[in-house]
Amino acid sequence: xxxxHIVNFLRERKKGAYAVLVEAYADIITSTPITLALKxxxxxxxxxxxxxxxxxxxxxxxxxxxxxKRSARVSSTKPAFKDAIEExxxxxxxxxxxx
Length: 99
Hints:
The chain is mainly α. It has one domain (3-75). Helices cover 59% and strands 0% of the residues. It contains 5 helices and no strands. It starts with a helix and ends in a 24-residue tail after the last helix.
């Protein structure tokens, strides 16, 4: 999405504006603290549209937390369900023990 569209979306105060903003700047947001990321994003948007952009810290922080929570959930490995035949257990025969 172009930055001008994001700015218009923020200016209209639509629901989900901060979520779109966080997804657009995901690489910056995940690697820096929230206050620094907020300043970087604000400066970049102001440079792009040549006007002052007002971003609310708590709305931005909440959107970042939701994004990080969602991306952590997506990247986790899914458990593999196998039948008893498919399992590779290194168990010995019942009744025998290793010494």
